[in-house]
Amino acid sequence: MASLSVMGLFADVILPVPFETFTYAVPTEMEQQVVEGSRVLVQLGKTKTYAGIVLRLHAQPPADVQMTQGQFRFWQWIATYYLSPLGDVYKAAFPGILKKAPTGGTKRKGRRKDEALLLSSIEDEGERVSMLNPVQQQAYDAIQESWQTKSITLLHGVTSSGKTEIYIHLIFQCIREGKQVLYLLPEIALTTQITERLRKVFGDRLGVYHSKFSDKDRAEVYQRQLSDEPFDVILGVRSSVFLPFQRLGLVIVDEEHETSYKQQDPAPRYHARSAAIMLAQQCGAKTLLGTATPSIETYYLAQQGRYGYVALTQRFANMQLPHIEVVDIKRLKFQKRMKGAFSPRLLEEIGQALERKEQVILFQNRRGFSSFVQCKQCGWVPRCQHCDVSLTYHKKMNNLSCHYCGKVYPLPPQCPECGNKDFGSIGTGTEKIEEQIHKFFPQARVSRMDLDTAKTRAAYEKIIDEFAHFESDILIGTQMVSKGLDFDNVSVVGILDADTMLNIPGFRSYERSFHTLAQVAGRAGRKNRVGKVILQTRSADAPIIQYVMDNDYASMFREQVEERQLFHYPPFYRIIYVYLRHRDNALLQHLAEEMASTLRKSFGDRVLGPDRPVVSRVQSMHIRKIIIKMENGASPSAVRTALVQAQNYMLSIPVAVNLHIYYDVDPQ
Ligand code: ADP
Ligand code: ZN
Ligand code: ZN
After folding, report:
1. Which atom of ligand 1 is nearest to the CA of 317?
2. Thinking of the domain 9-99, which architecture would CATH place it in?
3. Atom of ligand 1 nearest to the CA of 292
């Protein structure tokens, strides 16, 4: 019998609600079962029952452990650095199913016995790994060597230089040493191709984890990682940093420059690259950041000697880099020689590729993808009733929808302002591009990949699969087609309008344009033929276009770094956006000004604003944004303390009861 202590036993429990933790008394009869990390069923308020995780406790008996000790530390780092409640971290980290009340005991699933027998030894798997060529071998050795002195290394290798092949060798070596690997990708769309490649080598040792999997599947991977026989390799998108690892040895962040590594909504708004680096550090593991176009931050740290740096400047098997031809569409438009979104040169190249039975990728920036409707007579544009944005027109459904709140509206029969019945649809969306292609090349088989056609994982995979197996000739897409997909029959890439990207406001737009253009261009090229990229732009003379043509990352970097230093941006300063939301616009303005002046008491002129963000109303809530630019050396926990103080003060103001304050740290 457990003796009754006077104080009893208490547990601090993390719950999927936006407060830090709740403390519960542990019933005497459960004292022997609950440990830190246990999943417990607790009541919150009168009616709600939640499954929570015990964070702190003073007893050690074994039980149904749902977390490793290391994960607590990691969660706490995310919550502190990204200024997010621990409860939100819990929500993001845990597959939903595990958050609900447990039904019966959860069994820790390992490999079944017969499965274990079927599994070959890692040495046998070595036979399925292709040999590295001398250049790759050199890079491999250089990476291993840099890890002797630095735990983080950047592998800067042009597209198709064989980076993935090097990763496979590094993973193999890591498993051999009895350790685990986390391989991060920025997009679900990419997991299909890489899964195939890794599966061939690592078979059942590979686990795949991303949000398009069912909750049940994800819970299974999660549980498996806690079992005695966890996956050796996890391939996943950003949320896989939250999986439990027992002996993590290596983290690979592929396409490290991708901004989709940053979580937007909901909180925690974490950057998976930074999170992965922290996770690796906490586990004593090495990190490899791989890309053809490093982020300014990463390249800067490599230059400073904080990260190791290994470069690969040649494509595998001496495949040539594509030839980039710039087409000035401003001039062509003036001369009335454009055919819809296409220049004569692009149409010519597409036609020739089709004749040679080769494939074509057409890239349209996401901004340009959404078509919207405008009254031809008075210029009226339909807007969402709840959000401060214009609506997107969907041709197939012939309706309008809001990309912020998802509300769907019928297309009005006539303009509510002037009664005119003629709406011209504006902006060249992917749908329109597809229509035009059908007109120019009626026999061509066309697939389109965008937010509408690739909503589910199955839909994504189908489009990629079709194209990879040459069941379609032309792939039209947004950013989704620019990312690390490998198709070996693509000889022509058309960039329909490079400018839409360059004109997006924000300090990263320049860097991002370079990444996207260089990455899209990198999709062109076959083993025996130099790939062709037709880059259509209205700013043919802009330096960035020249850098892309020359594949001149270093010059782009120098130019950007100068500007970033001058205007106090990363990598020299850390940016924090403070957002305030309220239904009442006038009250919000007043409160935002109060918040800004409170923050100025701690941060002085590092505080800018408040301002209205680009979208200043979402779901009937008005929004204000305050920007804080901190010197890089400032301690994150000191910043957090000052912010929490300011927030608590604001929320103590009686009229601010319904004010919502949240943060975006290191915004993209
Ligand atoms: P990256 O990841 O840099 O884009 P990949 O690893 O995908 O490059 O390599 C590009 C192509 O070259 C792929 O088709 C890959 O299969 C092939 N390749 C790269 N290295 C080797 C190797 N050592 N042996 C055989 N094929 C290779
Ligand atoms: Zn009108
Ligand atoms: Zn809306």
Report:
1. 12
2. 3-Layer(aba) Sandwich (3.40)
3. 3
Which residues, at least 6 apart from 466, have a Cβ–Cβ distance to it below 8 Å? 447, 472
Ligand 1 lining (C-beta closer than 6 Å) = 130-133, 136, 157, 159-165, 316, 486
State the Cα torsion 21-25-30-33 to the nearest 10°.
30
Task: Tell which atom from ligand 1 comes closest to the C-alpha of 484.
Answer: 4
* Ion ligand 2: residue ranges with CB closer than 5 A: 375, 377-378, 380, 415, 417-418, 420
Q: Is-contact 98 66, C-beta < 8 A?
A: yes
At the topology level, CATH places domain 319-367+430-562 in Rossmann fold (3.40.50)
Residue range 311-337: mean pLDDT, rounded: 89
- pLDDT per position as a tens digit, 403-454: 777 788 888 888 888 888 877 655 457 778 888 999 999 999 999 887 667 7
Among 76-80, 601-605, 616-620, the least confident range: 616-620
Q: How close is the Cα of 372 to the center of ligand 2, in Å?
A: 14
Contact call for residues 631 and 637 (beta carbons, < 8 A): no
The tokens of 121 are what? Answer: 């030894």
- CA–centroid distance, 162 to ligand 1, in Å, is 4
Counting ligands in written order, the one closest to the CA of 374 is: 2
Given a cut of 90, whether residue 57 has pLDDT beyond it is: no
What does the radius of gyration of the chain's CA atoms come to, in whole angstroms?
27
> Residue whose CA is closest, atom 9 of ligand 1?
162
CATH superfamily, domain at 573-665: Ribosomal protein S10 (3.30.70.600)
> Which class is domain 123-316?
alpha beta
Higher pLDDT, 558 or 425: 558
Query: Which atom of ligand 1 is least distant from the CA of 132?
Result: 23
On the question of a common fold for 123-316 and 319-367+430-562, the answer reads: yes
Domain ranges of the chain: 9-99, 123-316, 319-367+430-562, 371-426, 573-665
Place of tokens 């040459």: 470
- pTM for this predicted structure: 0.82
